[in-house]
Design goal:
The chain is an all-alpha fold and 285 residues long. Helix content is 75%, strand content 0%. It is built from 14 helices and no strands.
Length: 285
Amino acid sequence: MQWWHAILLGIVEGLTEFLPISSTGHLTVVEKLLGYQIQDPGVTAFTAIIQVGAILAAVLYFIRDIVRLAVAWFKGLFSRDARANVDYRLGWAVIVGSIPIAIVGLAGQKLIEGALRSLWAVAAGLILWSVVLFLADRASARQTGRRGAPRGEESITVVDALIVGLWQCVALIPGVSRSGATISGALFRGIDRVTATRWSFFLGIPALVAAGGFETVKAFKNVHDTVGWIPTLIGTAVAFVVAYASIAWLLRFVAHHRFTAFVVYRVVAGLAVVGLIASGIVTAS
């Protein structure tokens, strides 16, 4: 892989990982436009590994929250009084909410890395999930107009986290978007936009770290023989820097705006992918 390809893909990853527009979908399209075989084991591993850069940006951005929840959870394991702390419950919520995608991801790994690595799947995911995000956004807007709603972070239960974690599993389909799935699930649970977005990060940290670490170990030789480790490290570093800025922007944006702009973008992007395939500029697989 050429160094400027690695930089470009790192930028794409950093910009799209936490926005509800599908980083995997965008990376797949850009990789195809650059001439890479998207089902090549090395390319698949590169795509997963550079996500670690983006997730490390999230860890750094939310480090105080992570430490707060971790300390409260650990204390609660040994002290009954500490279990009354809301952060103890939230710590368990993160753990429980991360379990579904780990199970489904391992069980469906061959399908995810094979048949679903198609631009037709990306286009379908982008367009169809825009409908779900639109409906979730409308449901949240209706909830906002009611007394005592929407719900904030302190109201999140382990059941909420488990349900949102199940929604996250749908994001294994390219084009759906992990953040788009988790945010939609949280909005349907009556959770406010900012909290839904923050919890998308919290549930994404264990999932993406595990996926990236697993791919690093499993595909070490594939990366070395195909993409190369220097481009992979460059892409990961670029993704880290860009993702950090993207996180800060997204949290400010959702505090004052609905997700309509992302819904429109997803539809346009999905139709653009269809156009690229239909025109023969890229092949679907």
